[in-house]
Structures are given as C-alpha cells and as structure tokens.
Amino acid sequence: MKKIVLIILMSVIHQSISSQIKPSEKYNLMPWPQHILENKSVFKIDKSLTIGIFGEDTEKRVEKASIKFLRRLANRTGVFIDKGFPIKEKKASIIINFDTVSVLNINNNESYSLDIQKDKILINAKTDVGVLRGLETLLQLVNFNKNEYYFEGVSIKDSPRFVWRGLMIDAARHFQPVAVIKRNLDAMASVKLNVFHWHLTDDQGFRVESKVFPKLQEIAADGLFYTQEQIKDVVKYASNLGIRVVPEFDVPGHASAILAAYPALGSKDNYKYNVERYSGVFDPTLNPSKEVTYLFLETLFREIAPLFPDEYFHIGGDENEGKHWDSNKEIQDFKKKNNLKSNHDLQTYFNIKLEKVLNKLGKKLMGWDEILTPSTPKTSVIHSWRGKHEGLEQSTLIEAAKKGYQAVLSAGYYIDRMLSVDQHYSVDPIGNAILTKEERKRVLGAEATMWSELVTPLTIDSRIWPRTAAIAERFWSSKKVIDIKNMRKRLKVINFQLEEIGITHLRNKNVILRNISNNTENGSLETLTKICEPLKVYSRNKGGTEYKTFSPFTLFADACSADAEDALVFNNLVVSYVKNRDAKSLNKIIIHLNIWIKNHNDFKQLDHNPIIESLTALSKNTSEVSKLLLDAILNKKISNKNISKGEKLIEKLKTPTEDVEVVIVESFNKLLYFCKKNYLKR
Amino acid sequence: MKKIVLIILMSVIHQSISSQIKPSEKYNLMPWPQHILENKSVFKIDKSLTIGIFGEDTEKRVEKASIKFLRRLANRTGVFIDKGFPIKEKKASIIINFDTVSVLNINNNESYSLDIQKDKILINAKTDVGVLRGLETLLQLVNFNKNEYYFEGVSIKDSPRFVWRGLMIDAARHFQPVAVIKRNLDAMASVKLNVFHWHLTDDQGFRVESKVFPKLQEIAADGLFYTQEQIKDVVKYASNLGIRVVPEFDVPGHASAILAAYPALGSKDNYKYNVERYSGVFDPTLNPSKEVTYLFLETLFREIAPLFPDEYFHIGGDENEGKHWDSNKEIQDFKKKNNLKSNHDLQTYFNIKLEKVLNKLGKKLMGWDEILTPSTPKTSVIHSWRGKHEGLEQSTLIEAAKKGYQAVLSAGYYIDRMLSVDQHYSVDPIGNAILTKEERKRVLGAEATMWSELVTPLTIDSRIWPRTAAIAERFWSSKKVIDIKNMRKRLKVINFQLEEIGITHLRNKNVILRNISNNTENGSLETLTKICEPLKVYSRNKGGTEYKTFSPFTLFADACSADAEDALVFNNLVVSYVKNRDAKSLNKIIIHLNIWIKNHNDFKQLDHNPIIESLTALSKNTSEVSKLLLDAILNKKISNKNISKGEKLIEKLKTPTEDVEVVIVESFNKLLYFCKKNYLKR
User: Could you give the ipTM of this predicted complex?
Assistant: First the structure.
C-alpha cells in the first residue's frame, strides 16, 4: 500500500516536473512553430491509421503528400499501415481540411493548425500547401517507447514570418542531376522552405536545353544539362511540394559558357572563348552595345521562360568588372553616345532593356544587388548578397527596401563558405533596422546559397544540410527563437531524419573514407573528420585555380564538414575546465585525449596510399599533442621541454593541410597554456 | 658489399616467388579475361595522363566512356589529372584504336586487347563497345604504394563466351526511378554485362506512359511510371554503355494493372480488377477470345515498341493458371471452335497472334519458357526460368535450343532468392549438355533476374550486387574459371569498387540501421547483420500476403544480405577446427565468440523501440550461446545442464525471427556437439 502511494506521489511529482519542461526542450520541431500547446493525449501509430482528405484537391498536392507521409511513417516506424492511400471516409484517423488550392506566389497562405488528440488528428489549413506544412510538422512529432510508436499530443497554430524562404543551388559550376535536385526539394519541403532558386548558367556551363540555340547545350555544357522535359518535371515536382522555382540565367557577366557557344555575342573581338574550368570572376561578357545581344536574349527567354511558371526571373547581373568593355572601342563609343558615364551605367542600360523583354513575358526581373543603381526600375527585385563580409555596415537588403524595391537577402546565408550553423542562425534578415509597414512588406525574405565550385553530387548534401534546416527556421519562425543551444539539440534530430528523405550527407561520408583508404577504414579516419573542417570562406581553392571543375572532390576535406562534432564538444569542455577547473569537464577531456592518442595506432593500420600518407602528420601530431597534454594533466606537471615541444606541434597543426583545418587546435593551445601556468616545474 | 649482394639475391628470390603467383591471385579482375600475360612494366598515374581516341566515334560512346574513365580515375586516386577530356594528339599516354561503331545486337563484337607498358597504354578493339570493355578492365588494374598510383603491367586479350549477358530489373512490383536504373546500368557495364531486361508491367503496376491509353499510367501506376522521354533517355544511356535494352510487357497473365485500367479486356465479367498490392500469381488475365484484346495490344505495341530499338521484345507469358479462362463460357466455346484442347493451347494461339503483330513491328517475340509448346513458331525466343528448383532435371534452355529456338537462361540466376553467390557462380548455362554447333549458337546466354516484390530503391542495389558481378563472370569468362575461393577474393574488391559508380549497397545498410535504432546504432546492429541473412527462396513474405507493396522495407532484414561476412568466416573456422583441432582456428573462433558475447551489452545501449525490442532475443541468445561455448572451450569441460541449455538456445536461434535467419547456428551446433563429445563431465 505504501508502495502504491509512493508511486502515485512520484508520478505526480514527475508530471509536474515534466510539465515545467519547455516544449522546445521536449519536441524536436524545426522550424519552431508560432504557437504550441501541450495536451496530455498520445495518438498511437498502428496499422489502423488512415488519412482522410476533405477539400478540392484539384492539384493533388495533398493526396501526393499524404501518400509520401504514409510511406515515411511506415518506413520510420516499421508499422505495416493497412491503408497505403488516403481513404474517402469521414472516420479516418487523420482528418485533413482545407479551403483552396494554392497559386504559388508570394501571396500564398501557408498557415495551418494541427491538433493531435487521443484518437484523432486534425489538420486544418486555408490552402493545400498549408496542409503540406502541417504534415511535415506532424512527422516531426513521432515518438516511441519500447512497445509502440505514437504522436505527441499537442495543438499547434503556425504560419511563416517571411513569404520567400529559399535555397539556391548552383547547377552550373558542377552539374547536379535531377535526382539530386528532387531529393533536396523534398528536404526543403520538410523544413518548410518554399523557393528553389535554380542557378542554371555560369562561366562553367549552360545547363538548359535550348532548341533554338542548340549550341548552348552542345558546346557549353559538356553533355551535362537539363532537357526541357526534365525542367518541367522538376518544376512540377516542386509545385507538388508547394515550392516555387525561380530560374537564374546569369548575364551579362558569368557568361563564358554562352560565349563559347556564340562568340559573336562577346565584348572582345578575336577572343578565344571557352567553357571555364577554374573558379572565380572572369572577363567574358555579353556585348550590351549590339542589338543582336538583345535579340538573342529575347529569343532565348521566349523559349525558356514558359518552362518556369513563376513570376520572378533572375538574371544574375553580378560581378561584371567590365574589363572587356573597357578594351572595346565600339562599346566605349556606345557609352558616350548614350551618355552612360560608367560601366555600371552601361549595365543598368542593359538591365532596363532586359526588363522590358521580361515584362513582355510576364516576368519580374530579379538580380544580384549590383543591379541596384539610381536608374534601376522600381519593378526590379534586388537580391542582396553583399553585407558585412564585403565591408558594408548593413546588407544591401534594407537599402533596397527603403528605396522602394522588393528584396531578398542572401548575405549571411552563403553556406558554401563552410561556416558554423551558429553564424547563419544568428543573422536576422531585418535585424534592428526600422522599417515602415510598406518597406517591411518589400522585404520578401531570404535564401541560403549553395555555390557549387567545390561540391559534386556526392558531397552537395553535406554542404547544404543540416545547416539549411536551421536557416529555414530563421526564415519561418519568430524573430525571438534564437537559442543556439536549443537549436543545436533539435537540429541533431532533424539532421538524422533528413536521411529518410534520401539526403546523402551521412551515408556518403563513409563512401569517401572507404575510397581514400582502399576500403580499410577502421574508424580512424572518421575520428579525424570529427575534429577537422574544410577550409572556410574560399581559402580552399585559393584564387580559384587549385581545382578544376573535373578535379577530384573525393578527398579527406570532402568527407569533413562544418560544425565538426567532437570539436564542438571538446572546445566547450576546455572553456569550461579552464574557467571552472571542474572534474566533470576534466574527465571528459581525458576521454577525448585518449581517443586521439590511440587513434593514430588505428590510422597506421590503414592501407597507405598517397592520400593516406598526406594525412599522416595530421594524425600523428594530434596524437602526440594529446599525449603530451594528457601526461601533464594526469601528473600535474610539465617540463619546459614539453611546453616547447607542444607549442611546435600545435604550430604545425595550425597550418592547414589537405584543405582542412584542425578545429581543436585552439583548445590544445589553451590546455597547454593552462598546464604551463599551473604545472610547470621550475 | 655483402649487404648489396644479399639485397640483390633477396630481390631475385622475391621475383621468382612472385612470378609463381598466379595472375588470378594477384589481380582483382572480374570478369576474368580470356588471356592475360604479365610484363614487368608499371604505368604511373599522374597529372600528365591523357587519352587519345583514334576511330570514327560517331556515336561518341568512346568519348563519353573516356571522360567517365578520367573522372573515376581522378576520384579514386585523388590525382589532379590535367586534361579532363580526350586529346587529339597522337602522343596521348592511353591510345585507343577501334575500327567500327557497334550496332547493338547479338552479333556485335566486344573483343578487345589491352597492353599496359611503362609509358603507354594501348587499347585496341574491332568496335567502340569493345573499347568500353577494355577501359573497364583497365580501371580494375589500378594499384598503389604509398608514393603513387599505377596501372599493373599486363597484356590482355579478351572476348565474351556468351553474346547475351543480362540483368533483369523488375520495375513493376516496386517502381525503380531512372536514377536507380542508370546507376545499375553503369555497374552492369563495369562487369561487362550487355543486356538490360526491363520488366515494366505486372499485376502491381504498369510503368510506362501511354499517350494512346493514358489510363494505363493514370490508374495502373499509382503515379509511378516512366515517361516516354525518360525511356528514351535510359535507352540512350544504356546504348552509350554498349548495353541493349529488352523491354518486357507481361501478357496475358500478370495483367491485373492493365485490367484495372481497361477491365473490358478481362476474362471474367463483373470482376473488380484492382492494381494488386500483394505478391504472387493472380487470376486476372487478358481475354484471348476477343478481337479487341489484340487490337489493344497492337495499338499499344505500335506506340511503345519504337521507344525500344532492340530487336527482341519480351511478352512475359508466364504463370497463367487460366482460372478465369475456365470460368468464362465464351472462352471455353472459343477454345472448342478453334480446336484448342487446353489453356496452354489457347495461350499459344494468343502468342502466335502476338508474334505476328510484333513481327510487323520488326520485333522477335521473347517469352518465359511457358510459351514453349509444339506449335510455338521457331522464331520465338525462349527465356528459360524453370530448372532444378522447379523439379526439372535440366533447365528448359537446352530443350529449347535442341528444338530449334534461340534461348536465354535465368534458372539458377534468380538473385531475389537471396542465395549465396557460390550457388549462382556454380551454375554453368550449358553444363554438361552436348550440343551441335547450331544448337550452341542458339544458346544466346543468360540473365540474372531481380524480381522486386521485396526490394525498394533503398535496398535493390544490395540485392543485385555484388553477386551479379560473379554471375557476370560466369557469362563472360571461360567455363574453366570456377575457383570459388579465388572468385570470392576478387569479388571483395569489386564489391567495394562498385561504390564509386554510385551503387548504394554498402552505404544504405547503415541508413537502415540508423533508422531502426533512432540514430543510436553503435555497431551492435551491424555486428548482427554480419551473421544474419534475409529468409531465402521466398520464405520471407510467405504466400505473398505478409507484405503489401507499400509495407516498410526498412527493417533489420533489409539491412542484411546474402553471404553474411562474419558467418562465412566463422563457419569455415568451425569446420576446420572440428576436423583438425588446430590452434589457429580455435583462436579465431574465440575472438568471434567474444565479439558476440560483448555485442549484447552494446545492443542494450540502443534506444529501445518496438523494432529493436523484437531483435532482443536474437542478440541475447547469440550472446548466451557464445558464452556457453566459450566457457566450455576454454575450460575444456561442459556440464549436461549446459549442453541442454545450449541445445535449447540453439533451437530458439534456428527459428527465423524478424525475417532473418542466423546463419552461424549450424556452427554453434557443431561446436556444442564437439564439446559434448570431448569435454562432457560424466
């Protein structure tokens, strides 16, 4: 009897404790919803689960999403759900209601409510796309105990902060096949992104089939391009997910590939235009002084624009240094004749002409922020890519919005720089800027950008994910959702769940490690990837000439990614220990050091080929510093000789090798300094 | 001086030893070539490597293959090859010569010679496709030391034993997207397979877009089908690899999906035809007594046949039990009127009509061996699937060839049965049959068949590979190449190299293990996969009604595959030890037992959800038997109680659980019997 009382008492206490836990600590939702209320229900997932759709699903978005939902739920839980397709009956256990079918544009309503009760789940939305957002939230609420899987009992009301939440993928530098695009669209939808910006042309390739100008794919694509059928297929696939597709055709610069196919459009006579193999900013530029250039572009856009139903059409317009314009007398004369003072003015002239072409095709011209000049028509859309990194106090986004332009931000979300998720997550698109209601409305939202100079279909997922999931939260959730520690906790789960969609970031890491070790990887390489990160902010591929487009991207650096997981933990431990001298941190530090000491023994067992050889110093030096520090810590003494030895080893580890940096090296330094201060034998 | 003499002497001895090593022990070629001679050259792979193509490459097969070769070589070795495309100059380091462009048919010449010298590699072939075969051989000859990668110096002359070397993929039971098909085509080419048999329709789905009969994809495909553009793309992709594509449209049986779309073609009135969700042999059958059936098929084939340039067109024709025919009075009357005594006769009548339709379209009718009846036209092609397993003394292949039919064998190569590679490798298509020259010529070759009832895009690669590589050797290499141990040694390397082509068999295993363990997999599940195999010969999914097409295939059984690697090793050790009582085997047995004992501790650390719970007994019983056996072996004694306990545990382990069998259980039994015999305390 006493026992029972005690159990009841404990359970009451437990409940009251658990009810104090913040929802954000309990649930791994991302993006975090606007409103969430817990109820005490649990909806058991078993074979009897059914979905009923109520609403005119004329685009079949909800039906398709429901089928995918059922497949993912069955595959994740192993439950043999009996009805594999939505049922017609009102007695379905998941009841979906919506009013209208979305037109995919910036005014689309994506709000939804989700209510999970004991025997029933209700999803209500204004639009079909709202339902899709709700289904993704529901899938993030699957939990289990050892007897069953269930949905957590919560009531959610949710809607996005920004109407434009994008991911740009550069398919020009390295071509990304349809399968890569589709799996990333699925992943985008899973974190409620709604704009896929498809960077389709650049110096390194023109990736769209043109029937009018077939040389574009014959000469300018190395055989790697999307057919028009494939583009339609991708656009339809995206539409099914409630994702708009904004294509980018980069002109007048970034046009080496176009000019390799049609050199007559170039700004420099007798220049040998080639598809570019290196990275960087190049001189080949379309000639804005010739009518044929506009004729070419109008004809091309007339052919290609209809493939993309979206109203926005991105023309790039960035990074034109105008060198070929300067060296062309005709172009200089043209500038004078038209009273164009600078190359910037000339480019604006070009953009204005292009805007008229696009307007005729029902399109809004969008371009990178270089297109913003005093005479740029207000109907243009500014894509802000320059900000603090480029020496500006504030991104060009706010300036554009204040000047009357619709604007989208990418400064701060350049995921190809390989920076920590914390940095991107901490960038608020608006920040402290004070905007009028009209100005705020012109800030459409933001996009993460995946430039592909250094990524291939094998590695691109690991550069996009999981960081883009946290960025997606920045674009969707309240400005107040900023707790990095909590974000990281949730991201860890979301990261792994991306696998079920087909994202290859986790699985392909070991593919690379097996490859470089001739299939002898024994965990030692993986241990190193957890303390190494690829060089950041374009210091890999310095000057753009270390790698060609066809160079190997199957190297150790390609198996590493931002936010190396052991480094993150270790660096925090060292900060804590040096500050607090706590035994708990110390014990964990010792475990880490031991792992790295021993790891070099495993490393030596690998088949040594030239790639493994080139990593030996990294492995050995890490092991030796760890040993030296461990000895000092355990014995509470260190000699001057060992301090000097440690400093030298740390210096070596600081030097980037094989395109990675060892991101625990500062912690090694702190520990060494700590030992020197406290344990030096004098 | 003495030292130098000694070194020279040792090196002479070493050379003479190494020259005694058989090439098949040294090189990991698969399929093994017809002639190989070693020379002492080594061709160093560095950035200066270039390819020159000499021959009229009008189909661009060699150019495309050369570019792929350069990418794979760079990615495998990390070498930054300077020229990423073939060069025009005669001074290229890899010189390719060929005479003609292949027409892809059974008379195509695929022979080639490959000569690797110190500074030059020569590939000579009659045809472009022959060159492709040679390039794949060359890629299998990459080796390395710690300083460099190089090609082994050999001279090879090679040609295939059979002209038809196929892989069938069933895209009907579970749809396989284009990306799955393409990566498998690449893998096929890497082991010199040359026929892709595409099983496109069955009870569970009609997977081809028809513009004439759009209900086929609208009603009979659940939205999962190939567009005509995609089919053309796949056929072109295959052609670039020197692979023919033979489509299969299964009629008159296996036609539930067709009849769900067009019930008027069915044999049973008022029958509710549905796309089938289960597996097995079903009754819905086209009605052979109605003219509209032939009109439908002729119209459909007229539309679809042109997508497939190959001369052979597979109509299935198998497993029609004729139940709906028996129950249809009109059909019975039709049989009488046409003097057709049996349903088999009626089906032959149907086939003869169909053959005429196909002949008009320039196609040869091919069908599973049920189509072979006395009145079957000699122009038909027999696909032999029945053999020993179905109670026949010999496969129907030989019978067909002797009767005057061209024939292709699949009996013995049903890889979906999940049998060991040894079994398939040991099946010779002709065996001891004595054939005339003409009969032999009619034996075109053979095909592995990947039926997809139990596989999805996530798992299909692990069911096809690596076993199909060994089967490909059976189809290409000399009949005398039969050493299983040597095959296994080479297959181990080929298996891993398939990853670089994009085959996902290795990487997706851990995706499944992470999924079922909620990302807590710590190696314990993987250890279990190395001693467990999925149930064989259709005992998984008994009666075809355990799994529906949309049931989860992300279970533990899906992470297991044939030829579980630790089981293979352990079973050999036990055989050896019980026979020879050798310490070497015993030591290794002890290591294995210790791993399994400890593994259960790790297993207990996993997040326990219902799936993990269901595996607990397997993990625990394996651990306990191992402990019991280890104790007995180390102490050289065992009690009657422990024998009885061991027997009970082994009995439990023998019972399949979660669709797998523990394939070391017989070895456990042997060890227990050994202990009983030798160590029992009386």
Answer: 0.95
